[in-house]
Each structure stands twice: as C-alpha cells, then as structure tokens.
Design goal:
The protein is α/β, with parallel strands linked by helices. The protein folds into three domains: about 1-115, Arc Repressor Mutant, subunit A (Orthogonal Bundle); about 115-185 and about 290-320, Periplasmic binding protein-like II (D-Maltodextrin-Binding Protein, domain 2), CATH 3.40.190; about 190-290, Periplasmic binding protein-like II (D-Maltodextrin-Binding Protein, domain 2, 3-Layer(aba) Sandwich). The chain has helices at about 30-40, 45-50, 55-70, 85-115, 125-130, 130-140, 155-160, 200, 225-235, 250-255, 270-275, 305-315, 315-330; strands at about 1-5, 10-15, 25-30, 75, 80-85, 115-120, 145-150, 170, 180-195, 215-220, 240-245, 260-265, 280, 290-300. α9 links the parallel β10 and β11 (about 240-245). α2 crosses α3 (about 55-70). The longest helix is centred in the first third of the chain and has 29 residues, at about 85-115.
C-alpha cells in the first residue's frame, strides 16, 4: 500500500502488474512506467517507441492513471509536453516505485546466477599479490557463496578449467577454442634496486650500464620475458646474471639483501616501493614490457563474476596509483 498526495487529497492505492479493475483501487505499474518515460523523453511518441507500444496505448495508460489519481498529469504548451503541478508532485514517488521494482528484479536474478561455491584458480603471482585483497571484497559482495582457491601454473589451470575442476582462472595470456579470455590487468616490468644503490639516486639508467651490475634474473616463462632477453642480446658483452630464480619473492628478497638488482613486475614490489626499501629505475629499452594476467572461463558457462572482479580490481591501491607512479618515474628522467 502506498500513499500519493495530489492537491489536498491522499489517495491510497495498491500497486499491481497487470490490468486494474474499475473501482478496485489498484494502480497499474505499467501506467506508472508510461508516466515516467513520457516525462523523461518529453514525448508520447518517443515513450511509446521505447516501450514498444503504440502511441494510443501510451495515451490510454496515462488517461487511466489520471482517473485513478483524480488529476491531470501533463499539459501541452505548443508542441511541448509539460508536467502539471500534480504531475511534479507525483513524479518522485513514481520513479521510486520503478527503482524498487528494478532492484528487486536484479536481486532475484543475482541470487539465481550466484553459485553456492566458486572455485578460483590462479597463478602464484595472483595468489600472492591480488587474491588476499580481492577475496574479502568478493565475499562481502556475495556472502552466500563459499570460495575455494587453487594455485597452479597457467597450463595446469587451463586443463583444470576445461575439466571443470575450477570455475574461473587467473592466468598468463592464453588462447583456447573452449574458453572465454578477458584481459584482467597489465603489470609493468621495471628494474628495481635497493635504496642505497647508485642507480637509486639517478632514477634512470641505460641497458648498457647494467653490464657492470650483478643481476638477479627472475624468469616466469612468459613471452614478455623473452623481450628482456632480446634487449640483452643487443649488448656487446652478456650481463652478469649472478642468480637465476623462478619466483618473484625470491628475486625480491635477494635484491633487498643487496645481492644484486632485478627486473620485476610492479605488483610484486608495491609495498617495498611504498616503504622506500626498493626503488624503480627507468630503462628506456624495456619501456612498455609488462606481464598480462587474463581471466578465463568456459564459453558454455556464463560468468557473472567477471565484471565484479574487474570493478574490485580497480579499487586495489596499486592499480589506482599505477598511472601516477609511471608518470612520476618518467618525470625523474
């Protein structure tokens, strides 16, 4: 039951979706919808087009609504359709009714599409640096869903997805005819040094100057790392690779121990950079090289979480500051 004030009268009405019987005091939601659309578009014809109705049908709905309210809702001023005083008073209530109904529909659709359990597969980097912040927010948004996490390699996660052992996967760039692939984020690769390293004061260096530096080379098997290899191939002498490791955490800790310097994805060293323990150094020859992480799902299964995950990712402090960090890095040159 809702109350609508028109003039000095309060009309008690019931809202139903369907035909209203004369004298039964019920108000048709479709009539309210027509009223809101006409006001929005300023035209009976345009509202009829959007609602897939004929113009006479829309006019009939407004006439019925006006009889139920006991007042005129629109008036013509030349070719313009304007709200009457009563129409302006009724409009916010009509809009609220439609908004409540729309929210109710969305809630029902979301509940139907939300699984009781969601198994997420991800690479080690995503598990270490993205998931700890992402999962609590996802749980808050979908409190009825239980989340299970599996960490593995891109190839193994692809196999698990195809065999329906996971529902969603966060992997390196991959293509397969059975899956849907969406680019999730790009993580720039830069050279990082410890805070009192000679490069830290300058903030920039050339690839040739690295020949004299002990390198900790983190290799993740991505095609992007091949570009780093190709850059080194242009040098007269090969770089001094003191340590070759397969985990970004190991490489990072070796740099912190001043055992050398390393090319690393920005997300893996975000906290250390904020604390000032590690410093990014601009190398022109490797500009634009980044690690791409993609979100994969089976094509046969609609993913209701892809958009939500993208939105939550943009709330991450690192990705919010990434653009400004890059601008600051270039400004030091």
């Amino acid at each position: 039951m809702t109350s609508v004030k028109t003039g000095n009268m309060i009309h008690k009405t019931k809202l139903v979706h369907g035909k209203s019987k004369k004298g039964d005091g019920m108000m048709n939601i479709e009539n309210i919808e027509a009223f809101v659309y006409i006001n929005h578009y300023g035209s009976f014809n345009k509202a009829a087009e959007v609602l897939f109705l004929s113009q006479p049908s829309v006019s009939a709905r407004i006439q019925t609504l006006e009889r139920e309210l006991g007042c005129k809702l629109f008036e013509r001023l030349g070719r313009q359709i304007l709200l009457t005083e009563e129409g302006r008073r009724f409009l916010p209530y009509a809009q609220q009714v439609l908004q409540v109904i729309q929210k109710g529909k969305q809630r029902i659709q979301t509940a139907k599409a939300t699984p009781q359990e969601l198994t997420i597969g991800c690479t080690v980097a995503v598990s270490n640096y993205v998931i700890p912040e992402l999962l609590p927010k996802l749980k808050h948004k979908y409190p009825q869903t239980n989340f299970k996490l599996i960490t593995s390699t891109t190839d193994q996660l692809l196999h698990k997805l195809i065999n329906k052992e996971i529902d969603i996967g966060f992997v390196r760039k991959v293509m397969h005819p059975a899956i849907r692939t969406v680019s999730f984020y790009q993580d720039p690769i830069s050279l990082y040094v410890y805070k009192d390293h000679p490069f830290a004061q300058k903030g920039h260096a050339t690839i040739a100057s690295l020949q004299e530096q002990p390198l900790i080379f983190f290799e993740c098997g991505s095609l992007d790392w091949l570009r780093i290899h190709r850059v080194f191939e242009t040098l007269e002498f090969p770089p001094d690779i003191a340590f070759h490791v397969d985990h970004s955490e190991t490489a990072k800790k070796l740099v912190l121990q001043k055992a050398g310097i390393a090319f690393l994805p920005g997300l893996s060293v975000h906290e250390e950079v904020l604390r000032g323990d590690l410093v990014p150094v601009y190398i022109p020859e490797v500009t634009g090289i980044s690690l791409q992480t993609s979100l994969i799902t089976l094509k046969e299964q609609p993913s209701t979480f892809a958009t939500t995950l993208a939105e939550l990712l943009h709330e991450n402090d690192y990705f919010r500051s990434q653009q400004s960090d890059q601008s600051l890095l270039h400004s030091t040159i």
